C-alpha cells in the first residue's frame, strides 16, 4: 500500500516520535510498502544545490511555521512546525492525493489539514497520539496544571482526533487517558518498538559477559539515563539523589541526550564527587555504553512510553523508574524494587543503594528484564501497525 506519514519534524535524533516514525517507515518499506513523508524538514539537495524530487527523497516538504516568541524554545527541543499556508497547501494536497492511507503523528496544523483533506477525498485516514499535553506544557512550567491538561486533551479531540476511526497509542496508560476524556475511536495499543540490535546485545551480554569498562570508568559505578534534557524528564532528581547514596564517591552519572536544561544540569552536577557525563551517542555507541552501565535510572514525571527505558533493559540492565501517575514507564517494572517516589531524591538513592548492595540479584533480575523486552521488538509493533492500517482501509471501503 502507499502510506503517507504526516509529521512536522522527521529528521531528528532528539525526539522519540520522530525516531519511531523513521523506524516504522524503514520496516514498512522493507515489507514492500511505499512510504512517503509529509514534513517541514529542510529540503534535500544534490551536489549542485538543486532540490531533489519527491521520487528520490520520498518526502513532501512544506515550509516551516515560526511561532512568535516561542520559536527559540521550540528549536531547543529539536522541533519544527510545518505551515499550511501559501504553497504548502498545494504540497499537502499533492501528498494526500498520492496516498492510499494517511497516518498523522501529531495534533498540529500540518496534520489537521492533511487529515481533513484526506477525509474530504474519502481516503483512509488514521492518527497517532504520542505527545502528552503534560509534556508540551512542561516547557513553560505548566505541566502539572490539571485544567490546562484537560482543556488540551479536549481541544485535540474536538479539532483533530474526532476524524479518525482508528487511533494508535504506544501504551495502555495513554489508551486509558483518551478513553477517560471521551475519545470514541478504536484505540490500538502498539509499542513504538525497539530495534533488534538492543535485544541481540542483551543476549550477547548475558551469554558472554558485559564489555569491559574503559580506564576512565573502571573503578566507578556507572548509572545512565537516556532522554531529552528537559524539565519533565527530571534528570535533576538523579543528580540530587547521588549525595544521599552510600556509594556517592564511586557513582558516575551519564546522561545521553540534548535539551534546554543542559547548562542547568551541568551546573547542578558540579557539586558531585564525579561530575556527570553528558553524551550524544549513535545507536552503536549507546549499546556499548549500556553494556558498561551498572544501573539504568528513568526519572521522568511524564511519558507516553519511554522507548529509551525499554532499550536499556533489553540489554539486561535493571531499570529504576519514577512511579509517576502521569507516566506509562512504571508498566515496565517487574516488581516494586524497580520503582521510587517521583521527584524524591532520597527515595531514589534508597532504591539505587538496594540494587548496588545486591549485585548477584541484580544480574539475575536483569536477565528477566531482557526476556520481558522481547515483546517490544519493532517487528512485532509494525505487524500490529499494518493490521490497524488494513482495518482502516476496510472500514473506509465500507463507509464509501
Brief descriptors of the model:
alpha/beta, six-stranded parallel sheet, 400 residues, single chain, 15 strands
Largest sheet properties: 7 strands, parallel
Radius of gyration of CA atoms, rounded to a whole number: 22 Å
Mean pLDDT over all positions: 92
Please report the number of helical segments. Answer: 16
Query: Could you state the oligomeric state of the chains shown?
Result: single chain
Spatial ordering of strands, largest sheet? 3-2-1-6-7-8-9
Q: What is the strand and helix layout of this fold?
A:
Elements lengths: L1 E5 L9 H15 L3 E6 L14 H4 L1 E3 L2 E2 L5 H6 L4 E2 L4 H12 L2 E4 L4 H13 L2 E5 L4 H6 L7 H14 L6 E4 L2 H9 L5 E4 L6 H13 L12 E6 L8 H7 L9 E6 L5 H7 L8 E3 L3 H10 L2 E4 L8 H8 L4 E4 L16 E2 L4 H13 L1 H15 L4 H22 L1
Parallel strand pairs: 1-2, 1-6, 2-3, 6-7, 7-8, 8-9, 10-11, 10-13, 11-12, 13-14, 14-15
Antiparallel strand pairs: 4-5
Explain the overall architecture:
The chain has helices spanning 16-30, 54-57, 71-76, 87-98, 109-121, 133-138, 146-159, 172-180, 196-208, 235-241, 262-268, 283-292, 307-314, 345-357, 359-373, 378-399; strands at residues 2-6, 34-39, 59-61, 64-65, 81-82, 101-104, 124-128, 166-169, 186-189, 221-226, 251-256, 277-279, 295-298, 319-322, 339-340. The strands form three sheets. The protein has a seven-stranded parallel sheet with strand order 3-2-1-6-7-8-9, sandwiched between helices. Strands 12-11-10-13-14-15 form a six-stranded parallel sheet, with helices on both faces. By secondary structure, it is an alpha/beta fold. 44% of the residues lie in helices and 15% in strands. Helix 9 (196-208) packs parallel to helix 13 (307-314) and helix 10 packs across helix 14 (345-357). The model has no long low-confidence stretch (mean pLDDT 92). The two termini are 19 Å apart.
